[in-house]
């Protein structure tokens, strides 16, 4: 049994997938299994690339799903197929520096943290140098401090960190779309999946804290994407969108509490409503601030 399972999640990006697999297979840390889970890609080149790599590397395990069942299904599938002591995801448009796992695993074993992550740098989009490095979460091995740092940071970059496989499986069921009426989900596609990973992260942190392993040897290069466009003027649809955000955060609170319970963390259960309340108020404040700035420029 390998010490670390790498879960590569794939869908219709053959060239980027090739880069991701090469990144995983060329790691200086060799005690790994690589689970490649393809989510029903329609491009035949995807399967061809996966099978070619698998034929030349016995550490690779392939999962081919006949139809696309959503991104979180694919994340769960990769995790549930893993047999390693530790687990880490790698998206098909991301890649690591060669020493990434070697340093991440050493730091995780030394610290005993439930979640360990390195440095995140955005690639494939035109950004200024300072904007390429994603803000980092501070090390906090205490559970309450780790949960507090996470909600203050308010980003899911650490979702791609290293964690114990057994603990991750207990929380895997949380990786599901929010319950949103289909018509509204079609109108605002981001509503279904925005912040879904937060409950999973919260469960990990409530179990055993976080360790920041950021260095030049632990760089995770993340494929950047264009942001969603904002509507320049307010309307009744924005009131409906606000109500959906309220619904999402109510669902988030129940998932946070469940995550902490699954991780056997009563402090996490008690802290969950505070955490989600803070996140909601913070985001509402940011939205209002952006709107006020827009009105001032008019």
Write the layout of secondary structure elements.
Layout: E1 4-10, H1 14-25, E2 32-38, H2 44-56, E3 60-64, H3 71-80, E4 86-91, E5 95-96, H4 100-111, E6 115-117, E7 119-123, H5 129-132, H6 143-153, E8 163-164, H7 165-171, H8 182-187, H9 190-193, H10 197-208, E9 210-212, E10 219-223, H11 236-262, H12 266-297
Parallel strand pairs: 1-2, 1-4, 2-3, 6-9, 7-10
Antiparallel strand pairs: 4-8, 5-10
Radius of gyration: 19 Å
Strand order of the largest sheet: 3-2-1-4-8
Tally of DSSP β-strands = 10
Number of helices in the DSSP assignment: 12
Structural class: alpha/beta
Residue share in β-strands: 15-25%
User: How many strands, which pairing sense, and closed or not: the largest β-sheet?
Assistant: 5 strands, mixed
Short recap of the structure:
The chain is α/β, with parallel strands linked by helices.
Q: Care to describe what's here?
A:
By secondary structure, this protein is α/β, with parallel strands linked by helices. It has 12 helices and 10 strands. Strands 3-2-1-4-8 form a 5-stranded mixed β-sheet, with helices on both faces. Strand 2, helix 2 and strand 3 form a beta-alpha-beta unit. The radius of gyration is 19 Å and the shape is globular. The model has no long low-confidence stretch (mean pLDDT 92).
């Amino acid at each position: 049994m390998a010490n670390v399972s790498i879960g590569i999640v794939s869908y219709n990006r053959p060239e980027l997938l090739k880069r991701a697999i090469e990144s995983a297979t060329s790691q200086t840390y060799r005690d790994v299994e690589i689970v490649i889970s393809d989510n029903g890609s329609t491009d035949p080149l995807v399967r061809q690339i996966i099978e070619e790599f698998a034929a030349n590397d016995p550490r690779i395990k392939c999962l081919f799903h006949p139809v696309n069942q959503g991104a979180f299904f694919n994340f769960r599938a990769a995790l549930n197929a893993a047999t390693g002591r530790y687990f880490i995801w790698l998206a098909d448009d991301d890649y690591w520096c060669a020493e990434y796992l070697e340093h991440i695993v050493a730091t995780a074993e030394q610290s005993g943290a439930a979640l360990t992550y390195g440095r995140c740098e955005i690639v494939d989009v035109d950004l200024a140098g300072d904007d390429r490095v994603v803000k980092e979460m501070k090390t906090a091995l205490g559970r309450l401090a780790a949960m507090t740092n996470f909600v203050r940071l308010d980003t899911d970059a650490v979702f791609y960190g290293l964690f114990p496989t057994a603990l991750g499986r207990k929380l895997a069921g949380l990786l599901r779309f929010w319950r949103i009426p289909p018509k509204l989900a079609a109108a605002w596609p981001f509503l279904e999946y925005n912040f879904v990973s937060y409950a999973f992260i919260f469960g990990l942190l409530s179990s055993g804290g976080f360790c920041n392993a950021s260095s030049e040897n632990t760089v995770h290069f993340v494929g950047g994407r264009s942001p969603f466009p904002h509507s320049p003027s307010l309307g009744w649809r924005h009131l409906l969108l606000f109500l959906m955000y309220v619904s999402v955060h109510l669902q988030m609170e129940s998932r946070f509490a469940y995550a902490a319970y699954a991780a056997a963390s009563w402090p996490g259960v008690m802290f969950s409503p505070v955490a989600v309340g803070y996140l909601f108020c913070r985001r509402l404040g940011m939205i209002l601030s952006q709107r006020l700035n827009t009105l001032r420029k008019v």
